[in-house]
Amino acid sequence: MRTSWIAVAAAVAGCLTGLGLTYLEVASVEDRFEASYVENVSDTQPEDNSQKGRAVVVGDQGFDFGTLEQDQSGTCTFKLRNESVMPLKVGLEGVSCGLCIQTELSDAEVPPGDEFEFDVNYTTHKDGPEFSEYAEVRTSDPKNPVIRFTITGYVTKMIRFSKREIVLGNISAGEDASANFRIFGFSDQPIEIVHHEFSDTQSAKFFQLELTPLELDDFKRESPRAKSAVQAKLSFTRGKPLGPLNQTLVITAKFGDETINGELTIRGTIVSDIMLIGGSDFISGQNLVKMRSIQSEVGHSTTLRIRVRGPFRDEVKLSVGEIDPADILKATLGEPTVVGKGYLYPLRIEVPPGAPSINRLGSQQGKVARVNIETTHPSAKQVPVYVSFAVD
């Protein structure tokens, strides 16, 4: 019995000893863990960016030059402020157009609380009309390592036409023609057309120009950057001789005390009231149809159009006249159709199957064939149609 109590006492003493040792070990570990935890917190704290400068844009980050003329220069200024207690380093990162943009921005250090400004000079070497470029600034601010400043604008002259040129096309000698266009002004002063003239004095008498000032709402959608505009109507009266028409309209405009000239090219061709129209085998300047070589057993045909315009279009009658060679070449006029301000007559020219061998190619072996179209027009009594062909 006594032995049992001794064993129990020994077990209890052992447990108490173990608990005491465990407490001492845990207490020492806790002390070391707390020291390690404090050190780890220090390592993960966010970096203090204020020690490297803080770049803030002062004012606008973009500049609109408005309207510049070709090869004209303009200058704008941008600003940065260092909003920190440490110096801010800045420098030029790059520009979008080395030919157009010039700046003296170089590496610099901006003291705390100070502002830094630099100029950007832009020259309109590109055609435009709109341009958008930029200059980039490098900084020591980790949150803004590169800041982009943009420049925009519009390249044009102070006076601009809504069309590059006036193309009148083929104008019937007996008809009038007209074209509408607009003249835009890009100055803050309103445009005033004080004079106009036509450079070709021989045909100047056939032209007239009517000008009407426009309100802002009338043209703003068409040309948003224009400040003023004039509606122009160019009229061409009948009577000029047949042939090419090359004319230049010279406009003199005033913007306040400044005078600007602008030029607009006018092109066209004065043609007869009666005109032949053909396909790929027709040479209009020569009224020539090229049928070339034809197999006798097959034959060949082509169809032209005869356009009748002008003041006599309703009275003019057409008919097939003399044909050479009449025994081989055939020509037939169809019924006219109304097209625009005139009529189109189909003209079918044919070498029927079974035609004998012949050379009418316009060489030494044979002159070209011909079909005469007779008309009742007072000044175009006859329209010859030449045909080049050979039958094998």
CATH architecture of the largest domain: Sandwich
CATH class of the largest domain: Mainly Beta
What portion of residues is helical?
10-25%
Q: Over all CA atoms, what is the radius of gyration?
A: 45 Å
The H-level CATH homologous superfamily of the largest domain, spelled out, is Immunoglobulins
- The low-confidence parts are 26-44
How widely separated are the two ends? 150 Å
Main sheet makeup = 6 strands, mixed
What is the CATH topology assignment of the largest domain?
Immunoglobulin-like
Secondary-structure content class:
mainly beta
The number of distinct β-strands equals 28
What is the average per-residue confidence, as pLDDT, rounded to a whole number? 86
Global geometry = elongated
Q: Treating each run of at least 4 consecutive H or I residues as one helix, how many helices? A: 3
Q: What topology emerges from the helices and strands here?
A:
Elements: H1 2-43, E1 55-58, E2 62-68, E3 73-82, E4 88-95, E5 101-102, E6 108-110, E7 115-123, E8 130-139, E9 146-155, E10 159-161, E11 165-172, E12 177-185, E13 191-198, H2 201-204, E14 207-213, H3 216-219, E15 228-236, E16 243-255, E17 258-271, E18 274-277, E19 282-283, E20 288-294, E21 300-308, E22 318-324, E23 330-333, E24 337-339, E25 342-351, E26 358-360, E27 369-375, E28 382-391
Parallel strand pairs: 2-9, 11-17, 20-28
Antiparallel strand pairs: 1-3, 3-7, 4-6, 4-8, 5-7, 8-9, 10-12, 12-15, 13-16, 14-15, 16-17, 18-21, 19-20, 21-25, 22-27, 23-25, 24-25, 26-28, 27-28
Describe the structure.
It is a single chain. This protein is mainly beta. The chain folds into three domains: 104 residues, Immunoglobulin-like (Sandwich); 113 residues, Immunoglobulin-like (Sandwich); 118 residues, Immunoglobulins (Immunoglobulin-like, Sandwich), CATH 2.60.40.10. It has three helices and 28 strands. Strands 19, 20, 22, 26, 27 and 28 form a six-stranded mixed sheet that branches. Strands 2-9-8-4-6 form a five-stranded mixed sheet, with no helix packed on it. A hairpin with a 2-residue loop joins strand 24 and strand 25. The protein is elongated and about 105 Å long.
